[in-house]
Specification:
The protein is an alpha/beta fold and 351 residues long. 41% of the residues lie in helices and 16% in strands. A hairpin with a 2-residue loop joins β3 and β4. α10 crosses α11.
């Protein structure tokens, strides 16, 4: 990115004036949006400074950015994206700023040829429902969201806090609102507590609810609560315990299997073969967190091996750097991986 490119702008984007290659001033036309963009006590700008090692100083509706050429342009792209997000009616939280910075850095990392031009703007995959719009916060999330759009069967595997399940539910809600599917079916193996469903109190929904709580939380984030309740009453959103799915054909539906590392080989095969016409399946799990009895191979681990060359199947692997829940979670994942040397999926047979 050269100084001349920094000067150029359009009416809807920030006006840019450059004094030299490593310093420029961004002026935002909407004062309220500029204030939200900078954050309370300029906390978002301080985050830019910390992550990109630039100097960012706000004055009114303008911000002066100086530092390394690559880093300052990454900061500019991140702010440009976040400002456009505010213009579209969305809010900007700290996690959004973190995501914009990650994507801006990744855009440069992907340009390996010196002759390639720097990207002028960030292009992030998005999922939109009537209640919420979600933009990818890491390159892997971007790949995952794009895979959900094009593939009939998507595996999202990796550590906790990377957004695998949340984005799967968001995508399903988006398709439901657009009328592209008729149902959302949520499933999860209930083995975490070491108890069989039959010994738990209540009816089947009450037995399974504790295991499906993360899926419910995502649903209520994407859709108004009353609509979720009506959809569940009408069977548009269905809770289907994995053990009870045998013999069904799931057409015109998005079927989400969460915590799939706790399926056996036969359960996984049974689940995958339920796919019907105009159906989509999303399988999420963490192969390093298998709760099956010792010596029992994870159905997720086996499926990743068997289906890796099958057309229509997409596998997206998240890593600790993709953790978006809280920065500390990523450090915790790295510490545990280093301590226990989590084996590759191809070597893992169960805990």
């Amino acid at each position: 990115m050269n100084a001349q490119e920094l000067v150029s702008s359009t009416a809807r984007n920030p006006k840019t004036a450059a004094s030299d290659a490593n310093h420029f001033i961004l002026t935002f036309e909407n004062n309220r949006f500029a204030s939200e963009l900078f954050g309370q006590f300029d906390q978002n700008l301080k985050l830019l400074e910390e992550r990109l090692h630039v100097d960012a100083r706000a004055r009114g509706n303008s911000v002066s950015i100086s530092g390394d050429l690559v880093a300052t342009n990454q900061a500019r792209r991140a702010l440009d994206f976040l400002y456009a997000r505010l213009q579209s009616g969305s809010s900007v939280e700290t996690s959004d700023v973190e995501g914009a910075i990650r994507m801006a850095v990744a855009a440069d990392d992907q340009l390996s040829l010196p002759t390639m031009e720097r990207k002028a703007k960030l292009s992030m995959a998005q999922i939109s429902t009537r209640k919420k719009t979600i933009a990818a916060r890491t390159p892997t999330q971007d790949s995952y969201m794009r895979a959900l759009e094009r593939a009939e069967l998507v595996f999202g595997v990796g550590p906790a806090g990377t957004g695998k399940t949340y984005l799967a539910v968001a995508h399903a809600c988006q398709l439901l609102e657009r009328g592209l599917i008729d149902r959302i079916i949520l499933s999860r193996p209930a083995v975490e507590a070491g108890e069989r469903l039959g010994f738990l109190p209540g009816d089947m929904k009450e037995k399974v609810d504790p295991y499906l709580r993360p899926l419910y939380d995502a649903l209520y984030d994407m859709m108004p609560g009353d609509k979720v309740e009506r959809a569940m009453t009408a069977g548009v959103i269905e809770i289907a315990p994995l053990a009870f799915m045998r013999g069904r054909t799931l057409a015109n539906a998005v079927v989400i299997l969460d915590e799939a590392q706790n399926t056996t080989s036969m359960q996984m095969k049974m689940f995958l073969t339920r796919l019907g016409e105009n159906g989509r399946m999303i399988v999420t799990g963490d192969p390093s967190q298998v709760d099956l009895p010792r010596g029992v191979k994870s159905g997720l681990v086996e499926a990743l091996q068997i289906l890796k060359e099958v057309e229509g199947v997409s596998v997206i692997r998240f890593k600790d750097v993709d953790v978006v829940r809280h920065p500390l979670v990523g450090r915790i994942v790295r510490a545990y991986d280093a301590q226990y040397a989590v084996p590759d999926e191809s070597e893992q047979t169960g805990r």
